[in-house]
Amino acid sequence: KFEKIWLIFGVATLLVFLSVVGVSAFYLGNQPPSCLATINPEKVDTTAPFDQPGLKKVKGKEWDYELVFVASAFQYNPGEVEVPLGAKVKVLATTKDVVHGFSVAGTNINMMLEPGYISEFTTTFDKTGEFLILCNEYCGAGHHMMTSKIKVV
Ligand code: CUA
């Protein structure tokens, strides 16, 4: 008798779990995580802020700087950038072609850049040093050469 109760309990739990997965996949399916805004991938070079990649000081916002990256096969623009120590930085990135990764070694920054979407991440660089940016999504023949660098000074 108890086995039967446990069996029903088990099946019910499984059904609840599956429906949670199903519902969240349905609602979140058309918006990838960490991608809030959309952009025309063919017009990245002429769409602000991606028309001027690099570090920019901003005023009246919760962050001090915006750091803009444009990814394309097989590079990031800028290929290297300096960030002042302790600055609160909002990283904004997108791709002009295929899906690229954007992970900063030694930090918890790890984004996926998808054509048509702007990925963003706000962080404070509180350690000096050089931080390598790597592509962690396979994007073609030059994937392993695709890097950039953040220098915290
Ligand atoms: Cu870009 Cu892999």
TrEMBL record:
<dbReference type="InterPro" id="IPR001505">
    <property type="entry name" value="Copper_CuA"/>
</dbReference>
<keyword id="KW-0472">Membrane</keyword>
<dbReference type="GO" id="GO:0004129">
    <property type="term" value="F:cytochrome-c oxidase activity"/>
</dbReference>
<dbReference type="InterPro" id="IPR002429">
    <property type="entry name" value="CcO_II-like_C"/>
</dbReference>
<keyword id="KW-0812">Transmembrane</keyword>
<protein>
    <recommendedName>
        <fullName>Cytochrome aa3 subunit 2</fullName>
    </recommendedName>
</protein>
<comment type="function">
    <text>Subunits I and II form the functional core of the enzyme complex. Electrons originating in cytochrome c are transferred via heme a and Cu(A) to the binuclear center formed by heme a3 and Cu(B).</text>
</comment>
<dbReference type="GO" id="GO:0005507">
    <property type="term" value="F:copper ion binding"/>
</dbReference>
<feature type="domain" description="Cytochrome oxidase subunit II copper A binding">
    <location>
        <begin position="51"/>
        <end position="153"/>
    </location>
</feature>
<dbReference type="GO" id="GO:0030313">
    <property type="term" value="C:cell envelope"/>
</dbReference>
<dbReference type="Pfam" id="PF00116">
    <property type="entry name" value="COX2"/>
</dbReference>
<feature type="transmembrane region" description="Helical">
    <location>
        <begin position="6"/>
        <end position="28"/>
    </location>
</feature>
<keyword id="KW-1133">Transmembrane helix</keyword>
<dbReference type="InterPro" id="IPR008972">
    <property type="entry name" value="Cupredoxin"/>
</dbReference>
<dbReference type="InterPro" id="IPR051403">
    <property type="entry name" value="NosZ/Cyto_c_oxidase_sub2"/>
</dbReference>
<keyword id="KW-0479">Metal-binding</keyword>
<keyword id="KW-0186">Copper</keyword>
<dbReference type="GO" id="GO:0016020">
    <property type="term" value="C:membrane"/>
</dbReference>
<dbReference type="InterPro" id="IPR034214">
    <property type="entry name" value="Ba3_CcO_II_C"/>
</dbReference>
